[in-house]
Design goal:
Oligomer: single chain
Helix content: 55-70%
Low-confidence stretches: 86-100
Order of helices and strands: HHHHHHHHHHHHHHHHHHHH
Distance between the termini: 43 Å
Structural class: mainly alpha
Number of strands: 0
Radius of gyration: 23 Å
Length: 411
């Protein structure tokens, strides 16, 4: 890959959301904004190799996209109706910022996460327009067909237009009711960045994790006393702190027990721990994100895997089960059970989850690891094979393959 190709890829990661958000604010139409942004990047692919990468790629892309959008509107046979409709959906005057927060991407997040939309549509639309993920990437993340995901995104944009959903950060009175759905989406964007689902993408996408953290910081500034906002920010920071150790030089995902903890970002860890302590001092019953942040605080407090306070981890998972009784939480709880009560007890708990998690590759990877520890090599190999078949991330596939291939022959 040459320097220009790398510049185009980097610009897409760093500038996509900015371009879409800027065009949405100006033209009030998500379809126009997305398609014009895509056309601008197509022009960049054509022109940058010959003309060189512009000094400010973001400004170049935004200007090009705006021209494309204007050209498209002029070509529309019902141009006046379209502009009138856009004016109904979005006020002609720029939306008023809330306090010190004035950010087009944050407005775009709240637009995509409006409660008039189904939760699945909010997630899909945000990942597409804010995260810049492709429809195949989003469909893989949620285990649905590409056609289904494409229709979901199309319907969501149509709903925003039909319902005249405004492009703005909600008023202070509306924020608490709106923030839960936004946090769900930002967490999913962060997770896609921390372990990308696509086989042809970087295994860890710092652009997505950084954007999720940036937007969560903005919401934390809006709602500093909201425990779940603080919890999610802490969770993201403590997870992001481990990113330098996540992928080996050979491109293989490195599990928590094998990571070089000396490479963890101590500044992010300190900030995350401070936020966790802040919520503990508040004396308010914690929600899902606060408990997950506390679990991560325990892990990042241990200088070595052997120093992990697994009793505390299990107690926190027991608390989490009362808040979120999902099978994925139960699966993660079983990993802590294995450390305290042994792999046999944990395997029994994991096997009970099979009907719900049969298409979830971490389920099979967890089973494989427990079976390996029990010396049941043939069964472990079959479980690794299933996990490899379902995993999309190339770095994770490489890690699972190595673990499988390290099993004794004939086990």
């Amino acid at each position: 890959m040459n320097d220009v190709d790398e510049a185009i890829i980097r610009a897409h990661r760093e500038e996509w959301a900015r371009v879409v958000a800027a065009l949405t604010r100006r033209f009030g139409d998500l379809d126009v904004a997305e398609e014009a942004a895509a056309e601008a990047f197509a022009v960049a692919v054509e022109k940058w190799p010959a003309d060189g990468v512009p000094p400010n790629p973001g400004a170049w892309l935004t200007t090009t996209a705006q021209r494309k959008a204007i050209d498209r509107i002029r070509r529309e046979s019902k141009r006046d109706d379209k502009q009138k409709e856009a004016g109904l959906v979005y006020d002609d005057d720029p939306p008023e910022p809330l306090g010190a927060i004035d950010d087009d991407r944050l407005r775009l997040v709240f637009t995509c996460c409006h409660p008039a939309l189904a939760v699945e549509a909010r997630v899909a639309l945000t990942l597409r327009l804010v995260g810049g993920l492709t429809v195949p990437e989003i469909s893989r993340a949620f285990l649905v067909a590409e056609s289904t995901m494409g229709q979901r995104i199309t319907r969501a944009k149509a709903k925003i237009k039909a319902a005249r959903i405004p492009y703005r950060v909600p008023s202070a009175g509306d924020l608490p009711a709106r923030v839960s759905g936004v946090l769900t989406v930002l967490f999913l964007v962060f997770n896609e960045g921390y372990l990308a689902t696509g086989p042809d993408t970087d295994p860890v996408r710092h652009d997505l994790t950084a954007e999720a953290i940036r937007l969560t910081r903005l919401i934390h500034a809006l709602l500093p006393d909201d425990g779940e906002v603080t919890g999610l920010l802490a969770l993201m920071l403590l997870t992001e702190a481990r990113r330098p150790a996540r992928v080996s030089a050979g491109g293989e995902l490195v599990a928590l027990d094998e990571q070089d903890r000396g490479t963890w970002d101590t500044t992010l860890i300190a900030e995350g721990h401070a936020l966790v302590r802040e919520r503990l001092a508040a004396g308010v019953a914690p929600g899902r994100y606060q408990i997950l942040a506390a679990i991560n605080a325990v892990h990042t407090s241990a200088a070595d895997m052997r120093d992990t306070d697994w009793s505390q981890v299990l107690a926190l998972y027991d608390q989490l089960v009362h808040v979120d009784a999902s099978p994925i939480v139960a699966l993660n709880r079983a990993i802590a059970v294995a450390e305290l009560d042994g792999p046999q007890v944990a395997l029994a708990a994991v096997d009970r989850l099979e009907p719900e998690l049969t298409g979830y590759h971490p389920f099979h990877a967890t089973r494989a690891d427990l079976l390996r520890r029990l010396g049941r090599g043939a069964e472990a190999r079959a479980a690794y094979d299933k996990a490899i078949q379902l995993a999309g991330n190339t770095a994770e596939t490489a890690s699972l393959t190595r673990r499988r291939d390290q099993l004794p022959n004939g086990g």
